[in-house]
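Input sequence (1002 aa), recorded before submission:
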Amino acid sequence: MDGVPDGVPRVPEQRHPGSSAKSAESLKSGQSAKPAGSAEGADPVASTALRFGVLGPVRAWRGDEPITTGSPQQRALLAALLLREGRTATAAELIDALWGEEPPSQALAALRTYASRLRKVLDPGVLVSESGGYAVRDLAEGALDLTAAQDLATEAEKARSAGDLCHARDVLRRALALWDGETLAGVPGPYAEAQRVRLEEWRLQLLESRLDMDLEQGCHAEAVSELTALTAAHPLRERLRELLMLALYRSGRQAEALAVYADTRRLLADELGVDPRPGLSELQQRILQADPGLAEPSSPAPEPASVPVRPAQLPATVPDFTGRAGFVRELGDILASADGGVMAVSALAGIGGVGKTTLAVHVAHQARAAFPDGQLYVDLQGAGARAADPETVLGSFLRALGTADTAVPDSLEERAALYRSVLAGRRVLVLLDNARDAAQVRPLLPGTDGCAALVTSRVRMVDLAGAHLIDLDVMSPDEALALFTRIVGEERVASERKAALDVIRIAASRLAARRTWTVSVLAAKLADERRRLDELQAGDLAVKATFELGYGQLEPAQARAFRLLGLADGPDISLPAAAAVLDLPVEDTEDLLESLVDTSLLESAAPGRYRFHDLVRLYARACAERDEMPPSERGAALSRLLDFYLASAAGVYAIERPGDRLVDHLEPTAYPGLRFDNRHAAQDWLYAEAICLLACVRQSAGQQDTLPRAIDLLWAAHDLSESGANSREYETTAETLLDSARQLGLARAEARALTTLVNVHHVGGRFERADQEAERAILLAQEADDLFTVCWAGNARGIIALYQNRHEDGEEHLSRAIEHFRALGNRPGEAAALCNLSRIHLATGRTQSAVALAQEGIGIYDAMGNTMRGANARYALGLALTQSGELGNAADRLQEALEVFRDSRQRLWEGMTLFRLAEVDLAARRPAQAAANAEMALTVLRGIGGEWRRGNVLTVLGRALSGIGQTGRAQVCWQEAAGIYEELGSPEAADVRALLSPVRAA
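Predicted structure, token format:
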């Protein structure tokens, strides 16, 4: 057996008693390690300590300074002594190690010379003579990289045995990172060769162990790329083939997984005359039978963050929490059970306004200490007209847990599985407030031991398997009165005790008077926002009365803030956005909002963010309609919010794309937006505000005065359409705006809405529809004298024509776009069209002019400091250089672009650049690297880019796999690509069928 599927493999080598992994990172980076507990700069000895490396070239350092280790034979002597870890080697043993069976006549003298030279460059007492031999002694703790790797492997084994796979994987990565090329590179002699083989085998075993844990944690999509390259480098290593089969199967690529087995069986028969080992054959049978045990986990987990992210999202608990002692104890006991290794779920049901959220938040705060890895919170808006989409919630949760936007999958199933994988091994409490039903909740449950979920809902979740159901009724009169008294004060209640009791009987009386009603019936009646507050009444009593009581005690400024904030859609609102709604400085706004939190009319969702309970929001809107004077202030408040988002998004766009003229052609705003210090802060704001920003866009769609700004906001925030995390919601919002523009008869607005959708369809690979809408956008924009939109729609038609092989049309569109951009003085737009025209020239065989056009585009972007658009230009230049045969330069330009796209969260362009790098690798006859890059492209483009692009990547992947002898997998890839092309009616289908023909003939 050539792999170790369980546990972490060890090297059977005598250990130095003082070794440690503490300096593992320093050995890799060339920095000296400090002893445990020492202060920065407190140990001058450590800064000059000797360190040695054998997991690569044999090297030595004194502190940060490299030491010359001499000739190859001298390095061979040093390596032989280091690998004995302090044990003495005799002269005869060392001569045999360096020269084997045919030593030179003066071998002993040469040995002594090498030892003398080493002794001069090393510290005194390190290389010692003893019993006619030599030894290396008195090294500092962790001075040898091999020793550090062994300690890290031991630490990983302990972590894995304890069930902490995240830590075990991280430690193994650090151990493997200590290798720097071939072990003992360039060192001669039979001893060095034997050690090279031994340590390379150990490295591969460590790698297999880490990959095995990757799959256990659901990282199969990422693992496929690495495993494809490894199986190419080590084709007869069956454990790697087994892991590749499992990774492919869990990635939904069953046919490829089976093809790996067929390729392996053929290779083993041809090379060794043997059959695959039983484990591989058993896995093949389990795949054929679709064994459910192979399917878990089913989605990738992100790389662990260097600093663990511990979300603390619980809203503030109310200071006047009263009563419910029995429920508090019961829920506390259930949450405590999660400590015993089970995932605790409690579902708290009750009518609206009965106090479910308050109780759940109170209990969650009490249990925080039991969940040290964080607490997640979301208002699922189950009682509203637009309940929260589980996909969107999972995206927010994953980002809160440290997952990069580019790593968030597209589908609900993949996000749910990734979410469970991220939570594996962590203790996190999840509070799912205001759930609509069990179907909305299920994807959001952690599903891992040690975590817990609290769910509140107006319906009893009998179909939520394994949940502990708690029915929350109205408070007893004594509890309710005590709560009421704590809120409004003893003195006021004492004088109106009967009236106070009338107020708190409302909800209970409503149900009690209707014995045929179930909780679900009342919940259904409450689903109508217009009647919800009216349903919560009994006789002359109503929940409205409770809200009226609190609202009536507000100061005028508080009351105004309460009314206007309730108008904004979206699950919550940030402090700067709230300041825009209120038209107040941020400091004054914060004081007002915090005072509303103190009255329990507003909740603190997170630092700097606020939210309403859904019933309170309805009441606030009703107050705004009734009391806000003049009535136009309601529209003015929402207009300021739209201005804030548009101005802020324009700031994000400008800082990402210096010199781009879009910001000069947006609708003017009367209210300012945020200013950002750097590109990363701008991007963080855009993605954090995505849900609320898109909600504001939709809310602004129906009014003639706000629709143009809403469309421009969507255009300025178009990065959201290419991120993957928000692409679907962006598209539905764009379609809503287009419908509104058509209904209102606004030609300019319709043209711009169409242009945003052109980009959406282009990204999704729907080229025919994209071209139709771009053509319509140009006509409308010309009618509205909007040359800016004409330019960009024409540019889009040019690149779409390229994809559809209409090169003459594409060149005409792009040439016209360049003229228009120049007329407007829009240099970045001109550069974009030049780079697209470069690709038309490339497709029509004009390689040199293609290179020149792309270089012209780069020059424009670089002169403006436009890094992100410059990456697009380098992408175009990389394609031209590939076709001109300058493969080294092509790879360099594409790698430069890739780094920018990754840093800018441009997931579509990251995936496409990986695909183009795979093409370069193929042209350079590096099929293994081509396969690895193509696999990474498939992973990054999952759920974005459309089927046509997926077909292109699969075609290149098939070519790469064929080049490394995995012809079965290659055939599966080409068959899938051919199916995609044929369904789309793409001409590439014939080319792929031609690739399949020789395979079939064989």
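Checked by second reader. The two ends are 32 Å apart (CA to CA).
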